[in-house]
């Protein structure tokens, strides 16, 4: 009897606990779903041109990796390069292009362009590159200013440019996000965005920020510039910690409140996470040295210094820290921080084992970047720096692709890569060479022999000389 009473009491107690537990579970709020930031709210809608299997034969080939093949062939199919070499047998369905006496290179990639954000015709309505309202404007994105109808895109295409990075201007310490695009016409910028290319972040050191903000509350000095960067990165680290803590607490089954979203810190934290690449406007060697120390203090990577007229002074450090240097062939002396530039800058950086790039920063220079590279190559050779044409083409394709995080897709003529290439009428380092055919993802984007096929901006329709290519 006593045993039965004990068993009954134990069962009742167990049931009571179950009821209490059930009530508690019922009254506890359900865990809210994890809040995550959309890293790609403006995705690419790019569609490649139709392409056909094509074999270009009997050409001199610069492969973009430093190699040259004479009397070579290039075969591409379904938008990808299939084979590069000699005596490639043509597939039955292939269109064969006899390139006797001509040259083939990877398409040119310009890492510093303002097409679309400073569109032509020039005027206040088209001046959308600088958000010069405060020193740190990491929240703005260049793509939200780009006018796809800018006729400059078509002119650059006729010069052999297949991809380009469009950046904000350089008024600010942190100017905002850049975007990499395919140089094909689009109704919106999303139609031009290079699929899966990482975003960049434009930053600027030296004269520009202190000149713009010296009378607006600062920074007014170079030391003020550096303090501004450091505070921005410190704020970004704090923002990271808040989101990391929120994610950890949510994973532990708690119901934490997500941090307040901050668009400026979203971008800066993206750099610290390694998702966004830093491209930094910087002229003087001492400024670049300070920026290299800054990136080590906050543990991020500067992908490239832009303009960088004094890179030759610290080329060894650039090589060690794996930072590319995007440079002009011969622009210098137009302001104090550009005064110590030399014409041998690009070849000296290359010879030191660093990543050298030829860039434009100009709607005119982008049309003839092959000639800019030729000037730099010639200046180096006259100074006794022995660099071949095949090596020098890396300045226009492979190295830019590396700095933009797209080298796995383009920048060299290798099997499996995008068929972004140019058929030149002559040695592309010649002043007289013209881009006869430009292919993007295997599609014929420009054919000099067929003016009726040249892309024309809607803005140009009805204008005198519409579609002219010089």
Automatic annotation (TrEMBL):
Give the required cofactors: Zn(2+)
Question: Which UniProt keywords are given for this protein, alphabetically ordered?
Answer: Signal
Signal peptide span: 1-21
Amidohydrolase-related domain location is 345-428
SUPFAM superfamilies, sorted: Composite domain of metallo-dependent hydrolases (SSF51338), Metallo-dependent hydrolases (SSF51556)
What is the name of this protein? Amidohydrolase
């Amino acid at each position: 009897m006593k045993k039965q009473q004990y068993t009954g009491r134990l069962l009742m107690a167990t049931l009571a606990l179950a009821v209490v537990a059930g009530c508690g579970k019922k009254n506890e709020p359900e865990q809210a779903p994890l809040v995550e930031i959309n890293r790609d709210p403006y995705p690419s809608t790019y569609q490649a041109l139709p392409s056909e299997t094509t074999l270009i034969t009997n050409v001199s080939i610069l492969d973009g990796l430093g190699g040259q093949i004479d009397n070579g062939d290039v075969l591409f199919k379904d938008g990808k390069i299939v084979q590069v070499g000699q005596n490639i047998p043509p597939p039955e369905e292939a269109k064969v292009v006899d390139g006797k006496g001509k040259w083939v290179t990877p398409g040119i990639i310009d890492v510093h362009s303002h097409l679309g954000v400073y569109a032509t015709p020039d005027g206040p309505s088209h001046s959308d590159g600088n958000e010069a309202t405060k020193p740190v404007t990491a929240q703005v994105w260049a793509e939200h200013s780009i006018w796809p109808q800018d006729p400059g895109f078509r002119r650059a295409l006729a010069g052999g440019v297949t991809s380009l990075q469009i950046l904000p201007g350089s008024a600010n310490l942190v100017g905002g996000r850049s975007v990499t695009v395919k140089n094909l016409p689009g109704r919106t910028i999303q139609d031009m965005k290079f699929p899966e290319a990482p975003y960049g972040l434009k930053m600027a050191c030296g004269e520009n920020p202190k000149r713009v903000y010296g009378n607006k509350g600062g920074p007014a000095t170079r030391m003020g510039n550096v303090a501004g960067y450091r505070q921005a990165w410190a704020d970004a680290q704090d923002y990271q910690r808040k989101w990391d803590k929120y994610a950890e607490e949510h994973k532990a089954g708690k119901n934490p409140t997500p941090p307040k979203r901050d668009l400026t810190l979203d971008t800066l934290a993206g750099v610290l996470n390694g998702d966004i690449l830093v491209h930094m406007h910087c002229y003087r060697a001492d400024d670049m040295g300070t920026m290299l120390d800054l990136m080590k203090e906050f543990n991020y990577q500067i992908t490239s210094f832009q303009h960088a007229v004094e890179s030759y002074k610290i080329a060894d450090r650039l090589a060690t820290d794996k930072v590319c240097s995007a440079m002009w062939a011969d622009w210098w002396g137009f302001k104090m921080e550009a005064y110590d530039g030399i014409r041998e800058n690009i070849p000296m950086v290359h010879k030191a084992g660093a990543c050298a790039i030829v860039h434009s920063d100009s709607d005119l220079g982008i049309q003839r970047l092959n000639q800019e590279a030729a000037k730099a190559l010639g200046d180096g050779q006259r100074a006794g720096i022995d660099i071949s044409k095949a090596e020098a083409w890396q300045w226009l394709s492979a190295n830019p692709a590396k700095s933009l995080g797209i080298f796995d897709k383009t920048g060299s003529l290798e099997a499996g890569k995008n068929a972004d290439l140019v058929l030149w009428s002559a040695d592309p380092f010649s002043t007289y060479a013209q881009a006869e055919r430009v292919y993007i993802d295997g599609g014929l984007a420009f054919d000099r022999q067929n003016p009726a096929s040249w892309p024309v901006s809607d803005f140009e329709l009805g204008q005198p000389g519409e579609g002219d290519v010089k």
